[in-house]
Amino acid sequence: MQFTAWTFVGLCCLVAGTFAAQLAPIRPAAAAPRPAAPPSTLALELRSIFRQIPGKQIEKLVQAYLLNDEEFQAVIRDINSLQAYRLSRQLLVQPEVRQLLQWLSQQLILSGSSLKIFEDLELEIKVLNKYPHASQLVNGIRGFELDFYQIYPLELIRSLLEPSATQSSPALTELWRRLVAVLPAYERVIGSPQGKLFIQKLQARGVAVQDVDALIRYQFGWSNATLGGNNYPSYDYTDYLGQSSYY
Ligand SMILES: *[C@@H]1O[C@H](CO)[C@@H](O)[C@H](O)[C@H]1NC(C)=O
Fold first, then answer.
1. pLDDT for res 213
2. Distance from Cα 159 to the centre of ligand 1, integer Å
3. Does residue 34 have a pLDDT over 90?
4. Residue 33 pLDDT > 70
5. Of all atoms in ligand 1, which is nearest to the CA of residue 224?
6. In the prediction, which pLDDT does 236 show?
């Protein structure tokens, strides 16, 4: 479930086709020429952020667990269940999410791309393992969580998205504002009866749901608290935990 941040972003891909199809004819061909807006650079900017995510490393980790770890396999089955699919549809139809995706799709089209750029984030897992010793390295859900948090650059990605002295792109700033606005939709869905049931299921599987939740909230600017320092080696979180805004 640690890919939830990805899953969320991946949701964009799910609807990419639909939205792209609906939004393609944005302007009638005969529209009067308008003063040209500055070209959007969102697609380029997002691509350069995606490049900071070590996709190959994450792929190798997921592959090792997917092929060798029963606890992890069970969670992956849950994530791919009809129940989880319905939950993701429920999230997609929330007004805040629809508005975000519609805006994102338009901006990406204006910058010469489409929601398909999120396909760059998809994992490609090979079925046959070239490294037989991988079976010795897996260590249940907890082991996966520890490894994943070491690899995934949570703070870096946020710092590239969030407006700051170094991030002053108008397109990214607007994207950030809209991502932050999705929080009520997220809370509505995880607080729904179906959402609660699914969370219980994951908890029963040993997933540290509160950590996944903290990761998602931190990544999208819904919270300024990163993962607790007690359960995880601090890595890049140390700097952040030093600040008074933690909890
Ligand atoms: C996180 O910190 C920033 C900067 O101090 C602030 O603008 C923002 O509102 C905070 N977000 C939350 C969810 O507390």
1. 97
2. 13
3. no
4. no
5. 1
6. 41
Pocket flag, ligand 1, residue 203 (CB < 6 Å): no
Measured CA to CA, the distance from residue 60 to residue 119 in angstroms comes to 18
Distance CA 17, CA 119 (A): 12
Pocket lining: 224 vs ligand 1, CB cutoff 6 Å: yes
Q: What is the 3-state secondary structure (H, E, C) of 6-57?
A: HHHHHHHHHCHHHHHHHHCCCCCCCCCCCCCCCCCCHHHHHHHHHCCCCHHH
Over residues 159-183, the mean pLDDT reads: 97
